[in-house]
C-alpha cells in the first residue's frame, strides 16, 4: 500500500529533524512507525514548489493550492492520500471529489473544530457537512470533538460507524529513551516552564508569577511574545529556542505550565502538543482546563486544572507543587506511567495503520465492483 503524506507544514523538514535526532517521530504523524512495520509505504510529498500558486489560492480561499494541483499530476504514485490537518490542504481535492473528479481515498486526522462546522450561516454549515462526508476516514484526536462534530453537522449514524474513529496522538517513546531517560529529582528542579504558541495566555501566567519567589521560563515564537510592558524579574522570555534546545530546560523544570485562551467556538485540542512534552519528561502539569482533550490530567493524577484567566488559581497550584515534594514525586510517576501505557506514538500509529488498511482494501473492492458493473453494462 502506497500512502501519500501531505500537511500544512513541511513533512520533509519534520522527517529530517527526526532523522538527525532533534525531534520526535510524532511530528511526522506516524510515518516512522509505519515504515518500521513494513505494511505501508508512506511517501512524503514535497510541501511547496510554486509559491505563486499559493498566493492565487488565497484569493479563492483555498490554502496550499500548489500542493493540491501537483497531487493531481501524481495520482498513479499512491493508493491513499493522508493529511493530518484535514481541510488545511485538501479543500480543492474535496471539491473535486464531491463532483466525482477525484477518486483517490483520503484519510485525515481532526483535532480542531472542522471547517465552518459551528458557523451560524446555514449555507456554510451545509458545505462543511458535504466536505467532511467526502473523506473515507476521519481519525478524531478527541472523543468530545467527535461527538460535537456529529451533533453540529447532523452526520448520518452509519457514516459514524464506518468512517469515524478516535485515538490518542502521543510522543515518541524512542526519542524519550534516547534523550530523557535520566529523570532529575525534585531538589534539582529550579523553575517552572511554559512553551508553545497556539492559543497561549502567557499574560495571565506572568501576572500570576508577579510577586512570587519562583522562577518562570517562557519559550514562545516571535508571533506569540506576550504583550507585557513590565516583565517581572523572576520571568524569562525566549523566542529563539528549538525543541532540541528545550530538552535540557525541561529536565530541570518543576512542572510544565500550559496557559490557554480561545473563544468557545474554536474549542479543540489546544494544549495537546505541550501535554506530549509533559509526559515525555515525566513532569507534573498545571493547565487551563480544556474539556475537549481526551487526556484528563487530574483524573490521571499528574496535573491540576485552572480556569481561563484565573490568576489566583495559577498562584495557588504553582505554590502547592513548589512546596510539596511528596506530591511532586507522585505526580511525576503517574506522568511517566501515562506516557508508557496510554499516550505515545505507537498507540497512534497502530490505529492509523489499521484505518489505512481498511480504507485501502475497501477502495480496492469498490474498484473491482465498479469494473464488474461496467462489464455487465457493456454485455447488455
Automatic annotation (TrEMBL):
Q: Which Gene3D superfamilies match?
A: Glycogen Phosphorylase B (3.40.50.2000)
Instruction: Give the highest taxon in the source lineage.
Output: Bacteria
Q: What is this protein called?
A: Glycosyltransferase family 1 protein
Organism whose genome encodes this protein: Negadavirga shengliensis
Q: What is the lineage of its organism?
A: Bacteria, Pseudomonadati, Bacteroidota, Cytophagia, Cytophagales
Amino acid at each position: 500500500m502506497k500512502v501519500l503524506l501531505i500537511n500544512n507544514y513541511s513533512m520533509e523538514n519534520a522527517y529530517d529533524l527526526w532523522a538527525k535526532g532533534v525531534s520526535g517521530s510524532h511530528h511526522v504523524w506516524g510515518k516512522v512507525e509505519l515504515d518500521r512495520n513494513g505494511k505501508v509505504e508512506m511517501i512524503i510529498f514535497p510541501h511547496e514548489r510554486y509559491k505563486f500558486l499559493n498566493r492565487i489560492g488565497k484569493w479563492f480561499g483555498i490554502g496550499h493550492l500548489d500542493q493540491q494541483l501537483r497531487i493531481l499530476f501524481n495520482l498513479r504514485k499512491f493508493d491513499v492520500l493522508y493529511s493530518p490537518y484535514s481541510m488545511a490542504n485538501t479543500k480543492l481535492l474535496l471539491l473535486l471529489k464531491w463532483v466525482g473528479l477525484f477518486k483517490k481515498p483520503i484519510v485525515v486526522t481532526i483535532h480542531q473544530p472542522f471547517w465552518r462546522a459551528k458557523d451560524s450561516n446555514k449555507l456554510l454549515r451545509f458545505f462543511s457537512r458535504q466536505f467532511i462526508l467526502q473523506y473515507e476516514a476521519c481519525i478524531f484526536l478527541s472523543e468530545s470533538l467527535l461527538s460535537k462534530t456529529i451533533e453540529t453537522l447532523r452526520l448520518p449514524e452509519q457514516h459514524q460507524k464506518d468512517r469515524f474513529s478516535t485515538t490518542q496522538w502521543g510522543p515518541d517513546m524512542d526519542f524519550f529513551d534516547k534523550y530523557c531517560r535520566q529523570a532529575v529529582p525534585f531538589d534539582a528542579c529550579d523553575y517552572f516552564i511554559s512553551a508553545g504558541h497556539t492559543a497561549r495566555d502567557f499574560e495571565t501566567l506572568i501576572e500570576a508569577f508577579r510577586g512570587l519567589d519562583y522562577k518562570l521560563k517562557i519559550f514562545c515564537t516571535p508571533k506569540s511574545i506576550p504583550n507585557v510592558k513590565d516583565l517581572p524579574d523572576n520571568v524569562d522570555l525566549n523566542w529563539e529556542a528549538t525543541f532540541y534546545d528545550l530538552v535540557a530546560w525541561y529536565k530541570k523544570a518543576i512542572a510544565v505550565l500550559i496557559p490557554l485562551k480561545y473563544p468557545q467556538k474554536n474549542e479543540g485540542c489546544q494544549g495537546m502538543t505541550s501535554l506530549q512534552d509533559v509526559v515525555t519528561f515525566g513532569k507534573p502539569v498545571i493547565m487551563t482546563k480544556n474539556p475537549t482533550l481526551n487526556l484528563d490530567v487530574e483524573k490521571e493524577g499528574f496535573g491540576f486544572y485552572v480556569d481561563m484567566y484565573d490568576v489566583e488559581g495559577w498562584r495557588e497550584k504553582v505554590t502547592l507543587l513548589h512546596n510539596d515534594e511528596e506530591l511532586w514525586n507522585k505526580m511525576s510517576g503517574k506522568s511517566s506511567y501515562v506516557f508508557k501505557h496510554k499516550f505515545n506514538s505507537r498507540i497512534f500509529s497502530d490505529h492509523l495503520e489499521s484505518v489505512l488498511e481498511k480504507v485501502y482494501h475497501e477502495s480496492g473492492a469498490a474498484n473491482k465492483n465498479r469494473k464488474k458493473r461496467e462489464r455487465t453494462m457493456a454485455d447488455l
